Amino acid sequence: MITFERVGKRYPNGRVALENVSLHIAAGEMAFLTGRSGAGKSTVLRLIALLERPSRGVVLVNGQNTGTLASRRIPAFRRQIGVVFQDHRLLPDRPVFDNVALPLAVAGVALREIDRRVRASLDQVGLLGKERLLPGELSVGEQQRVGIARAVVSKPPLLIADEPTGNLDPTLALEVMRVFKRFQEVGVTVVVATHDLHLAQEFAQTQIVLEDGRVQGTPEAPLPTLQAAP
């Protein structure tokens, strides 16, 4: 599903975010990127979602080399990836239904299909019945689950999350991770960037440790070896 081969990323300001990173995440796997702030976790996710391109090396996502993808094909590429942010990024003046429906509306999906998919997504995260509430009327944990419902409403095969539990207490963090786990159990590939090692140890099938832009080996997660992309 995801392969990095000797990937480097240098930003225009000269900062080197990744250096010689090689890793592989198999389809249907639940993988965690761990490491201190600034280690390169978010940059890995941005490269997967094609929000950035690598400065060197190869990034393959579902067999597609993101470094050579034509600009006109980027929107279609991104539709296969659900993205969950730490700060939810919900529209505060629109109800839950509209927030979850946004990706489908942008893609031009028929209204009847939007209604069906939104309700199904909210049901999957335990929020069916709250579709007419505004985000401010929900708890922080519920807001994060709305963000997850929006990320999966298009039924993407890949779900990535950047510090999705960073603002949550331990109980809510476990609740959110169990939601991710349910999606992984039905075949969705899940990649989570987090600094919470306890969550990684409990939920990760693969743990990739980053330090100063490089992949490190640990007793729990040996240095990954590059495998052929599917």
Supply database-style keywords.
single chain, alpha/beta, Rossmann fold, 6-stranded mixed sheet, 4-stranded antiparallel sheet, 32% helix
- The name of the CATH topology of the domain at 27-50 and 78-208 is Rossmann fold
Evaluate the radius of gyration.
17 Å
Compute the average pLDDT.
Answer: 90
Percent of residues in helices: 25-40%
Q: Trace the largest sheet across and list its strands.
A: 6-7-8-3-9-10
Secondary-structure element series: EEEHEEHEHHHEHEHEE
What is the count of helical runs?
7
Beta-strand residue percentage: 15-25%
CATH class membership of the domain at 27-50 and 78-208 = Alpha Beta
Tell me what the structure shows:
It is globular, with a radius of gyration of 17 Å. It has a domain at 27-50 and 78-208: 3-Layer(aba) Sandwich (Rossmann fold). Helix 5 runs parallel beside helix 6 (170-185). The chain has helices spanning 41-48, 74-78, 96-106, 111-124, 140-152, 170-185, 197-203; strands at residues 2-10, 16-25, 30-34, 56-61, 64-65, 81-84, 158-162, 189-193, 206-211, 214-216. It has a six-stranded mixed β-sheet, with helices on both faces. It has a four-stranded antiparallel β-sheet with strand order 2-1-4-5, with helices on one face. The chain is α/β, with parallel strands linked by helices and 230 residues long. Strand 9 and strand 10 form a beta hairpin.
